[in-house]
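Posting this for the archive.
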Amino acid sequence: MFRRRRKTSDFSAEIEAHIRLESERLQEEGLSEEEARSAARRTFGNVMQTEERFYESGRWLSWDHFLQDLRFGLRMLAKSPGFTSVAVLTLALAIGANTVIFSAVYAVLLKPLPFKDSDRLLFVEKKNPLRGWIRNPISPAEVLAWRDQSGAFEELAAYTQRHCVLTGAIEAEEVPCEVVSSNLFPVLGVTPLRGRLFSADEDQPGAPRVAILSYGLWQRRFAGNEGLIGRAINIDGNSYTIVGIMPPDFSHSYAPPLHALSEMGAELWLAGIALSPTQVWNDYFGIGRLKAGITLQQAAAPMDLVSARLERMYPDLKGWRAQLMSLRTMTSGDTRPALLVLMAAVIFVLLIACANIANLLLARGAGRANEFAVRNALGASRRRIVFQLLIESLVISMAGGVLGVLLAIFGCKGLVALAPAFLLKSAPGLAAGAVDLRVLAFAFATVVITAFLFGLAPALQSRQSRVMETLKETGRSSLESPRTRQFRSILVVSEIALAMVLLIGAGLMVRTLAQLTRVNLGFNPANVLTLRVPLSGKHYEQPQTRVEFLQRVVDAIKSLPGVESASVSHGLPLGWWGQFFVTAEQPNPPAGQVPSANYVIAGPDYFRTLQIPLRTGRSFNDYDTQSGNRVAIVNAELARVYWPGQNPLGKQLRVESPTAPWLSIVGVAENVLSRGPDAGFNPEIYIPYQQYPWLLGGPKNLLVRTSAGVKPESVAHSVVQEIHRIDKDQPVADIATMEQFAFQLIAQQRMVMALLVSFAILALVLSALGIYSVLSYSIAQRTREIGLRMALGAQRGSVLRLIVGSGTGLAFVGITIGIAAAFVLVRLMRDLLYGVRPADPMTFGAVTALLAATSILACYVPARRAMKLDPMAALRHE
């Protein structure tokens, strides 16, 4: 208004100046001052109309109308606090849920990787379709051949994961690290925060040992010491010179995790990969930058040709081909289907919320028909009324959006608590639990869209009102048109159908989680403590020294109170340590079978500690040493594959190489789900670690079973003390219970189930409220009709059937549409399900019964209120 007054006052002053000049001219012609002024004003015309036309021609008129409508909308919403509170809270929950899930989708699937031209970066592994192997490391020979001969890459770098132990003035610490080729960081296009990158000379054998630290490790262990560059630190018993510090936002964790519970990527990088064209052992992952204009598919064909040439030169590479994926796909991993399902679910919740509020606004708009008719009769245009209703919708949506973003801040923290470790590792921004500007922009766009989604229907309803008929009907009950009633019914049917799809999805995830928690892993994870001892340093380079240390540690742990048994292994069950070729006594493997098996290095009491039953034979003992006969234990699956119907005890096999020694089978163990529930049982060979203490770096995992009633966490401190008593400089890492380790395998399904159930409950409540609001308003509109029916002798039971029947009819249509839609949509969840089909009849039946019962209850409450109407009071009211 101030702007209007200022503009019009300037215009009035200009008009007054023109009138004064005209008056002065007339005075010079002989008229008196009063006569001249009157004549000048008559000549100019109506000053007020001129000022109004000038104001209405200005751009500030629309702004003034907007402010007027905004103030009026706020007053109208303040007069209905119940309606406003329900609408704002409903939208806040829906917008908050959408913002939380979008933050995860953006962090994992959409956020650009912090590398130059990241769309040209590929993650390189290899596969062997003939053997059924996928996602395998690559060899130095393949790295060099693909880089130099395929013509697809500007550059191809290699790296391998490991754990490194830092020792020095403070306590020894194990950190995840990577040994990388010198061109890895240039391929990624990153520069260090301090110092320099590796040089090509530092890849060569005999070059000085150099390392680069992550920013987090630099701050945590070295307190951000600026003088650290050029200094030496001790890593795995060797001296390394620090040459660089990476930036704070740099994360390089694009490889399978070293530990299922680890949320952290590499914190330390070492130079020293000397790639040789004759090395064919597989220990590396590759990251390459494609040449400009070459796609992933175009790069695959020439790489396969190079692989075909390599297998003619090196028999060990027979059948291996490159497996390429974009770095973005690698980071998202198996989480993409889960996040897309959750995003679809929250969009459904938002649509249900919009339909619910639109229903409420339609009912409220019908009650305000007289107001709109009066305003229209007094000169307000229908366009102005529609605009004012949209402003009211925008106010509700903005209030819901602000509250929803506040809820999303806490919701993101809850999502982080539910998310599996590998998801947090692939999206460090998600782990921070922050809502960044792009997520806020998404929330704002959601607010604007929802304002139109639920505000457009009542706004269009107001345009269809007939002024004279509405004014004549003042005081009557029924002011709602049949078309509006039909539209409200469609909204309720849509709510129920969407809720049905969400409930079925949630039900399938509940069934999946129930199946996963009941699956027989093949061992008993209860009361088992796991921890890892790296055994780094020159002192443990001799295999026999490792054996002696581990034997002393196991003996000491067994003597602790509450400990029932203890053993060692390389890797843990459910972690899958790797596969090797198997050659058995028979000439060829069975038809259709891959001659390979999981390779497990274990100590005495391994089977007792994990309570893996032995079908026949014996377990390992203290006599299975390098001086004894070479022995092995196989699982039931391997025995079934190679010796069906035979007793495998005494049979012989060997692993990986024709020159390897033959192993005599001394026992057959029950099957263990080494790769998790989805992979089923695989052939496995157990080897005593005393006979091969150097194999795969030797055993590093300790397994401790506590007695019944003793929590494994309670002995963790004592176990660590015993290890440090034997070697005070030996770090201990990854302390966890076996149940935690197993629980992490179903973390993604648990997250999806928890969120889907939450969204489904919200959808169920909103759809029930939709039915309730429609019937309540219908009863209010039909008060005279119901009173007349009852006055003419209608029984209360017939009134109940009339009301409930109309509501259940809508519910039946919605449930039918929802079932049909669910049959199609839940197939998108196939990768998330275990032990249950997408079209599971039990889930569909249970959800149908639940939604039907909820709908009947929502119908019964307003119907019961209608039964209590006094016919005479209802007729007098009319």
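The longest strand covers residues 153-167. The longest helix spans residues 382-418.
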